[in-house]
Amino acid sequence: MLARSWKGGWVFELGGVGVPGENPPCPSRRPPYSLTSKRMKCQILQMIEESYVADGIQFDQYVLKTLLGILVRVVLILLTMRSSSDGFVCEKDAVHCHTSLIIDNAFTMIDPINGPLFVDEGTLRPILQPDKEVSIENVITADGWNTTLPLLTANKSMPGPPIFLYQNQTITIIVQNNLINEAVTIHWHGIDQLGWPAMDGVAFVTQCPILPGQFFNYTFQPRFSGTYWYHSHVGNQRDMGLYGAFIVLKREGEVPINNQHIIHLQEWNHKFGPITLLKANLNNTSSSSESILINGKGEFENNEAPHEVFQLDKSNSHLFRMIGVGSADVLLFSVPGIPLIVKETDGYPFVPKTVDEIIIYPAERYDFELDLKNIREGVYNMTVHILERKYLEKRQNVFGLGLINITNSLSLPVNSSASTSNIKTVLNCPFEVFPNETKIECIPVSFLKSRPSFRLEFDIIPPTQETFTHFLNFGFPKEKEYSSINGKKFIWPTVSALTQPSELNTSCANCDAETSCECTHALNLKSGSEIIMVLSNIGTGAVITHPIHMHGHTFEVLKMGFPSVNETGFLIPNNDIQCSPTLANNKSQCNNATWRNATWNDYRSIPNINVEDPVRKDTIVVPYGGYSIIRIWATNPGVWFMHCHIDQHMIEGMALMLNESFENIGDLPIGLQTCHNFKNQPSAPKSFFQASEENISESQVNTQNSQILELQSRSMENNVIVNGVEEKAPE
Ligand SMILES: [Cu+2]
Known about the structure:
By secondary structure, the protein is mainly beta. Among the domains are: 305-455, Immunoglobulin-like (Sandwich); 467-664, Cupredoxins -  blue copper proteins (Immunoglobulin-like). Helices cover 12% and strands 32% of the residues. The strands form twelve sheets. Strands 17-25-24-19-22-26-27 form a seven-stranded mixed sheet, with no helix packed on it. A six-stranded mixed sheet has the order 16-15-18-23-20-21, with no helix packed on it. A hairpin with a 5-residue loop joins strand 36 (564-565) and strand 37. Helix 1 crosses helix 7. The structure holds copper (II) ion. The site of copper (II) ion has 5 residues, from loops.
């Protein structure tokens, strides 16, 4: 028999497979959830059997079931070996690796054997047996709040299991949706999916969502090493725990994996579930977060819930890969007493900067090493604060803590020349001067320089000599309630834009320079052209800083324009952009901005623009009262989402689709699912349903089942298969 282990692998127990006789019905999907594995095995066996019957070949049922039972076990063993919450590593000499993510409903503070738990001075105890101690191994504690919260998880853990592979390896990840109620997709954040637009994982932009009980094969080939991550791209599922690290390793010069430490940083809010959030909104209760988690662990009101602990031997080099997986909050990270040598952001290297603190917005990544030369052995704190979203003052009542235990197997000497400066350097400020702080030196990311040796190569379509500039203003015009880009509140397509473009209505005809509207906002990018985007945050809708993420690309950050700080400490918006030819910026929605100085239309003549060695990112801060100038080349055909990574803003409409060189997308994987638009109701429901039923014969159902099975088994082979179709990898 097979039973489901708590962390998502498969545990094998002794038992019979292939006993002759009638097929009992497969177990239902109702709780208890441990039936899920039996149900899946049962359904696979039935599908195999039905496919043989459909082909008119009848084997002796006992022999057939026994052989196929063994086959199913082998397949599931392979899945087991490659799927656990401890993570997956693609072997260095492999060309194509396979793993799986099983998406489940889960809960905080429940042990599968002992039931609901509480925290007692750092120890987990069952509420019904308070004298007993429970190991944290099978428990998602979050902040240890002793009220169980619902989660959505990959392989029953939060964070989900990290996935490691090497540059240019192809990977297939089977995402199985075991959720009871919800559809899901998984986005591979920061992977540009060059040549693989159907694998980007955005519901209703690049694919139809995966319904409960179904699965999707994501196959793609990451080209660049670095720290990436995966997360759901449906609603606010990411906030409920559906995320994990996706690490692409360098072929040479990589820190050993055992010395790489992933830090998932997030705020934690007891109202993240859709129902509790709805209830909080109805009651008009505060939705601010209660605690901060490091790798899914933190404390609520000093309850002494378990913290994350990192073990470091000073005689080795260690790499920290920090990922902002939070929903909305701006977080300030530091290891007091130890300088951070920051080397990469969003997967791309820059000339290293040594800083004291890093500001990280949702979806950003920063890779750093610790400067340990002046550091003695001992236990050090890793601290995280929430910063208010406009002036970045520290919130006083919430504090995140992790621990670093530094040992020294070689007894290296401690250098006594420690810095005594009381000025703190902070990376990633959304302004040049920190308001009301005299002891902070700000380093915005636009001050970073990419490594001179670093060059990108694009290879789907060649770049042209044409340049186009697009002004995009992010904010809340129209009584501050309209999450939008250029006043356009994004309405989600009802079908997948990539697979069914002819069914989309992307008209935004009702919008203009001072009128907001709702539409499926799409921005056309001309094939091969150089694209300059001026991402701004000014006008009547400017309220807070937004972290803006672009799919399908990383971009160069050529310049950031910042607000200034007046003598009373207030931020005064930057004036380089003209929102309207007739209205002052503070009276305009800024839906149709231009440069105030027309000579800036040739972007190379903009003062202090960096086209020589700009840093690359996929998520950029667009400062309140300022702007960020970014550059891409439209050489990756696809439909790419671009949006604020504050989940609530994205859901409310601060998003658009980049329609990039659609004519050059080429063939999508055959069999890529299409979806149906439920907004078009049939005019004569009765006859419609009769016609539908007549069109589906039993043999068609059997054929579909055998195709699904073939797809599942072939995806285990070492071929490049995208949803059952062999494809040539991009060269
Ligand atoms: Cu936002």
